[in-house]
Design a protein that fits this description.
Keywords: DNA-binding, Transcription, Transcription regulation. With about 200 residues, the protein is mainly α. It has two domains: about 45 residues, Arc Repressor Mutant, subunit A, CATH 1.10.10.60; about 120 residues, Tetracycline Repressor, domain 2 (Orthogonal Bundle), CATH 1.10.357. It is built from ten helices and no strands. The longest helix has 24 residues.
């Protein structure tokens, strides 16, 4: 075997996911992961800080990536349209995750520790999007609302991508989720405006 294996990271990730599914996240160890992958602890440490990082490696870069996509969107677009364009623009980055995404989802759902990490990741993305939308002229409260909605739309689109991997067009899935939301909110337009508070 060569000293450097270009597939080492993928082998480690695949071994970890298998063990997490078989024995539970809490019961699997880094030693078991490296043994199953046929690699060393040193190699594991080259790619991941701990076993949790197998599921979240690279996620610290996500807030900056999506915020930059909002900034790059056509300046003529209003904030929410710029947000949707950014979601579509960055969605393709997750294509490599789809094969393991269903396993990852089940593993995270089984562990309160991992669920908290996932919430922390999404909160960081929401905060970054809020800042980028404010740069495009949205007020603080509107930017936060739109960022939260944008993250929810992306989550919905990605979940559908996981469940229907044959649907490879993330743009269509994002558009579908956004359209469903808009349709559901249409009756809100008929509500009476509440009286202003004195």
């Amino acid at each position: 075997m060569p000293r450097w294996d270009p597939r080492a990271e993928e082998r480690l990730r695949a071994a970890a996911l298998e063990l997490f599914v078989e024995h539970g996240y809490e019961n699997a160890t880094v030693a078991q992961i490296t043994e199953r992958a046929g690699l060393t602890r040193r190699t594991f440490s080259r790619y991941f800080t701990d076993k949790r990082d197998v599921l979240f490696a690279g996620s610290e870069q996500l807030p900056g990536i999506v915020a930059d996509a909002v900034r790059r969107a056509d300046p003529a677009l209003p904030p929410f349209q710029a947000l949707l364009a950014a979601v579509v623009d960055t969605g393709g980055l997750f294509a490599d995750l789809v094969p393991h995404a269903a396993q990852r989802r089940a593993i995270i759902a089984s562990s309160p520790e991992l669920q908290e990490r996932e919430r922390t990741k999404l909160a960081a993305v929401t905060e970054a999007l809020t800042g980028a939308l404010r740069e495009r002229g949205a007020t603080a409260s509107t930017a936060k609302l739109l960022a939260q909605v944008g993250v929810a739309i992306f989550q919905t689109a990605f979940e559908r991508w996981i469940d229907q991997p044959e649907r490879t067009d993330i743009a269509a899935l994002v558009h579908e989720a956004a359209t469903e939301l808009a349709t559901s909110l249409a009756p809100v337009a008929g509500l009476a405006t509440p009286p202003e508070q004195p």
